[in-house]
Amino acid sequence: MVLFKPSPEISSLWTHTAETGPRFASLAGDHQYDVAIIGGGYTGLSTARYLARKGLSPVVLEGNHIGWGASGRNGGVVSGKFRLAFADIAQSWGIDTARRMHDIGLEAIEHVGELVEAYDIKGADFRESGSLRCAHNEISLQALRKEVDWLKGALGDHSVSILAPAEMVEETGSKGFVGGLLNTHGGIIHPLNFVRGLASGIDRIGVTIFQQSPATAIRKVRDGLVVETPGGSIRAKQAVIATNAYSDLTPATANVKRTLIPFRSAIIATEPLTGTPGEGLLATGRSYTETRRMMRWFRKSGDRLLFGGRGAFGRNDSPSAFAALERAMVLQFPELAMVKVTHRWSGLVGMTLDSIPHVGRLDERVIYAMGYNGTGVAMSTLMGKYLAEIVTGGEPDIGLLRTEHLKKVPFYVIREPAVRLVAGWYQFLDAIGR
Ligand SMILES: Cc1cc2nc3c(=O)[nH]c(=O)nc-3n(C[C@H](O)[C@H](O)[C@H](O)COP(=O)(O)OP(=O)(O)OC[C@H]3O[C@@H](n4cnc5c(N)ncnc54)[C@H](O)[C@@H]3O)c2cc1C
User: How many angstroms separate the Cα of 420 from the Cα of each of 250, 263, 268, 426, 434?
Assistant: First the structure.
């Protein structure tokens, strides 16, 4: 029986430009640690860091290699945003909750900077260049104006402002935007170097990491639990599930898998733009998102342009999905019509029913954090800090992220066609300008 699905190779710009990652052995034999962490992405590695700082002995089990999941293949946009607007959070849960969530967002961005500094991760090339939301029509711009007014008035957040069409041309090089919302917080990072740097950093402080060591089962025993892998087992007092959108790789994380909707997100990268008609695009080096429902985003890395989005992509990569992304890129930036796309890759984003990440306990021994809804670079890394508090009996105030009971996705077996159907509908609404 194949317990762990083979890992498809990814051909991302990040794997081509990353520094060599640290090497870790796979688990052999039976060992004992305080906490077994399943998943070697930002969530798992960051949790291990904070547990070690609390004097516990954590071990990280990664089924593939460090950063193989979303942490090594994402767009590298560092943001403190949630999919729910803070004004909507205030309306449903009150202003104090909205303020706390806003603070968590800012803390998440700062925390990325702290880790980069603590472990001297130069290759992460973390730039706090801010983010720009680019309005594709007047209706979207109105919504952005309302959001800025609310953030300033209700939360006293003056890091946001509205840009005029001429400023948008200066910022992006495109005449396709009627205005935008500039947020001076956040920025961009090399995601694979960041996750590898994090692994090297915690390795240096004595955390044990095993690669190619998938947890295939979690068995409860009298004084804790045993996590099984093909090469051996870990006996621990507690386990942390940090597998996010990749929770369906083995039955060990089946409970978490049923609470998430995996959504494929794809990215393309151009050849270097120096000397091409696209040379002047995205001159301000921020992260840029557009306001369509099926949101597209873009950024520079060196002098290449990255263009990404979610859509009706299906379970696996397909040439037609990448071709659609390429067409969308050229529509937005006609200067790129003759420029070569050199890298194409994708990964799974973990969406939740309520659009909020979830952090909590499955039972007295198993803790989880997941469902970052596509904005997890900063948030998942910060959640490691709070997970470590929960493991050690703390009750940190993480606003709406703290979850008492995980809700299973209804009609789980048809989730993928359903997601594609909704994505197709959103694309249709975008296409007709609604
Ligand atoms: C294409 C793409 C673009 C994105 N762009 C952005 C962006 O620009 N900005 C942003 O903020 N967020 C973005 N995200 C989301 C962000 O990358 C994730 O939220 C974040 O990386 C989640 O980290 P994680 O550690 O929780 O999970 P992951 O990094 O996915 O790690 C989970 C790990 O668990 C391992 N695993 C699974 N099962 C087992 C098992 N049984 N035993 C052992 N190991 C196991 C997997 O191999 C995997 O490495 C993007 C995601 C994708 C896919």
Answer: 24, 9, 20, 10, 19
- Could you report the per-residue pLDDT of 319-353, keeping only the tens digit for each? 888 999 999 999 999 999 999 999 999 999 998 98
Task: Clarify whether residues 219 and 110 are in a common domain.
Answer: yes
Centroid of ligand 1 to alpha carbon of 41 (angstroms):
6
Domain-terminating residue out of 351, 375, 395: 351
Task: Assess whether the C-beta atom of 38 lies below 6 angstroms from ligand 1.
Answer: yes
CA gap 256, 279 in Å, rounded = 44
- Of the chain, the percentage scoring pLDDT greater than 70 comes to 89
CATH of the domain at 312: 3.30.9.10
Residue that finishes a domain, picked among 321, 351, 381: 351
Examine the domain organization and report whether 52 and 90 are in the same domain.
yes
By DSSP bridging, strand 35-38 and strand 58-61 are parallel
Distance CA 129, CA 430 (A): 28
Q: Say whether both 323 and 399 belong to one domain.
A: no
The answer to whether position 434 is within a domain reads no
Band (pLDDT 50/70/90 cuts) for residue 1 is very low
Question: Residue 306 sits in which domain range?
Answer: 126-186+262-351
Write down the pLDDT at residue 423.
57
CATH number, domain with residue 210? 3.50.50.60
Both structure tokens of 65? 């290699």
Q: Give the residue, by CA position, lying nearest to ligand 1 atom 9.
A: 77
Lowest mean pLDDT, pick from 158-172, 340-354, 402-416: 402-416
Ligand 1 centroid, distance to 68 Cα (angstroms) = 8
Determine how many CB atoms are found less than 10 A away from the CB of residue 205: 12
Into how many domains does the chain fold? 2
**Is the beta carbon of 325 within 6 A of some atom in ligand 1?**
no
Average pLDDT over residues 252-270: 90
Atom of ligand 1 nearest to the CA of 378: 11
**Could you tell me the distance, in angstroms and rounded to a whole number, from the CA of residue 205 to the centre of ligand 1?**
23
Q: Please indicate whether residue 250, judged by its CB atom, sits closer than 6 Å to ligand 1.
A: yes
CA 69 – ligand 1 centroid, Å: 4
Residues 338 and 326 in one domain: yes
**Do 202 and 342 fall into the same domain?**
no
Across 307-328, average pLDDT = 80
8 Å CB contact between 378 and 198: no
